[in-house]
Amino acid sequence: MNTHSPAAADSGASATDVFRQSGRSSAGADIPVERAQALIGDAIKAMSDIAEKHSMTYEEFNILKGWLIQVGEDGEWPLWLDVFLEHTIEDIVTRDRKGSKGSIFGPYYVPNSPVIQSPATIPMRDDEKGTRLKFTGNIADVDGGALTDATIELWQADEEGYYSQFAPGIPEWNLRVTVPVDSEGNFEISTIQPAPYQIPTDGSTGKMIAAIDGHAWRPAHLHILVKAPGHQDLIQQLYFPGDEHNDDDVAQAVKPELMLDPQPDGEGGKTAVYNYQLDKA
Length: 281
Ligand code: DHB
Ligand code: FE
Hints:
alpha/beta; Protocatechuate 3,4-Dioxygenase, subunit A; six-stranded mixed beta sheet; 12 strands; 27% helix; binds 3,4-dihydroxybenzoic acid; binds fe (iii) ion; iron
């Protein structure tokens, strides 16, 4: 039995609060009018085209209105947009990169997690459940030169699929860490293997998924943010072979380059290596 529930009212509303506080919703608000006309005009036209194509009825139009209102009241717009649209934006903005592949940010990042020197153990509960995972690697530029002033941030769900600071009952900063690399650009982080994650099913996003007979699962993943001065931030997720949702991620955020290859460490845990290459800013 879970000791807490993934209620939309908890994780969904927290994601809305955290997003508002991040300042990202107003950064870049000076979008030129021609650009706004193109984006907003096409969005409105796309909605009308769908209504036309399917001869949408008044009943369906009113259900849509009620649902849109409810997504906002549930605080689920960060969830909905990060699941269904962010993968497209991520593909567009990283198209020209030569270095490591990225993936979606998702709604559950919190800046300024505890800084722990490498070799680091991620903050976790004394009785944290899950297979021990030692995650190691190197951070370099696209020519292989070590980036010795890089940091790697890791955040992840626990063994039950919940994120600290979003689901209730988990200590602050649990399974969240910032690790500066060593003098050769290497890092080592001891953590646990996360569980597959189900986006909240009890709010309006879940209702929409049920209405189309879909599922709400994402495969187990580590969230990563790598930063180095003079280089582009790398927002990434890493996945585990054999997860039943690697091929049907609800958020469509899995790429073959993001698959880890964890090996048994002989002591009941696993080790996984990932080497990064960052593009210049
Ligand atoms: C969502 C959750 C995640 O952990 C993630 O990586 C992407 C999206 C979500 O609930 O929207
Ligand atoms: Fe996630």
